[in-house]
Design brief:
The chain is an alpha+beta fold. It contains seven helices and six strands. It has a two-stranded antiparallel sheet. About 14% of the residues have low confidence.
Amino acid sequence: MSLLTSVCCKVSESILRDHIMGYLLENDLISNKQYGFVKDRSTMLQLLHMMDKWTDYLESGGQIHTIYTDFEKAFDKVRHGRLIYKLRAYDISDSLINWIQDFLTARQQRVRVNLSMSAWGAVTSGILQGSVLGPLLFLIYIIGPKYFRTVLEAVKVLAGYSNVDNIYTTPSRIHKNKISLITKKSCSVLVHH
C-alpha cells in the first residue's frame, strides 16, 4: 500500500496540518490577504473581494493593471532544506519539524524506460502532491514568515511593468526559491473606464 493512500497517514497529516495552521493564524503569521490553502478563505472569496475593490477604483476614474502568473512545477521544486529553514523561522517546534523532515526526506525514486530501471536516488526537493500536508507546506515555502521578502511580494513590486516579459529579465527574489514563472501562462491586463 502506498504511503500517500494510507488512511493512517492522511489522518496524521490532517492533525498536523490543523495544528500548524492554527498556530500560524493565531500568531498572525499568515497575511489576511492570503486566500489559497487557508481554511475558510476560498479563492472565490478572494475574487469577489478583488472585484469589489476594482469596481470602486474604476468608478472613481482609476485604472487597474494586473499581472496573472503561474509557477512552473511549483510543488516539485520546493527545496527541503529551505522549507525546514522557514519552518524554524516560524518557530515551529522541533518535534513537528523532525516529523515533517522525515515525511519529506525518507523518499527515493528511480526511472523506468521500457524494461530498464535506473538506480535509486534520494529525493531532495518536492512536496508530495495529493498529500493532505502538501498545500500547507507549499504555502509556508512560497510566502515565508512575514519578515522574509516573498515571491508574491516580488511579483507585486514588478506589477508596474507594462510588458509581462520584463518580469523574466528583471533580477528579483522570485528566483530565490528556485521557482520559475511560466511565460506562456502569464499575461498583463490593463483595465480602465
